[in-house]
Amino acid sequence: MAIISLALWVIATIASLITFAPVQAFQILVIGIMQREFGDRARFAALSSLPITAVLTWYCYDYLTPNEFHFGARIGLYQNGISIARYLAALAVQTPTTLFAFLYFEADRHRRSKAPILIAALAVAIAIGGGILIYIQAR
Q1: Which residues of the chain carry a pLDDT beneath 70?
Q2: How far apart are the two ends of the chain, measured CA to CA in Å?
Q3: Who's near 22: CB < 8 A, 6+ residues apart?
Q4: Which of these, 34, 51, 112, 118, could form a disulfide with 42 (CB 3.0-4.6 Å)?
């Protein structure tokens, strides 16, 4: 059982990297381009590019990660592409990621402690994970 848990952790880590690394690289590219024009205020370009990065997040997830696992059960045919519901799901996942990166580097820029941001992010992750676990057990 420990081997299966470790394997699933490795797969989830790789899938997260494949999904979010290109998006974060895109945000860095946008900030780098905007910095020439707007100077220090270009860091806000990461927040304003959030709708585009949500689309990029969905396509990285949809096309770069293997998501047609059936585990022996016939679940149905998976359909690629983006819809309003899928866009909103990608936006809901990408917004905290972008906000965390923005606040983390903003704290570094102002020479403040990053500990409150990390503790708050951990608390939110635990609360969301606990809520999902409670929901699954209640079903």
Answers
A1: 66-80
A2: 24
A3: 56, 60, 64
A4: 34
b/e for 73-104, b at 16 or more Cβ within 10 A?
A: eeeeeeeeeeeeebeebbbeebeebbebebbe
pTM above 0.90, yes or no: no
Q: Apex CA 112: angle with CA 108 and CA 117, to 5°?
A: 80
Tell me phi and psi for residue 65, to 5 degrees.
-105, 145
- The answer to whether the CB of 27 falls within 8 A of the CB of 47 is no
Tokens of 22: 């290109």
Q: Provide the pLDDT for residue 79.
A: 63
Torsion of CA 62, 65, 67, 68, to 10 degrees: 110
* Gap between the Cα atoms of 20 and 58, Å rounded: 10
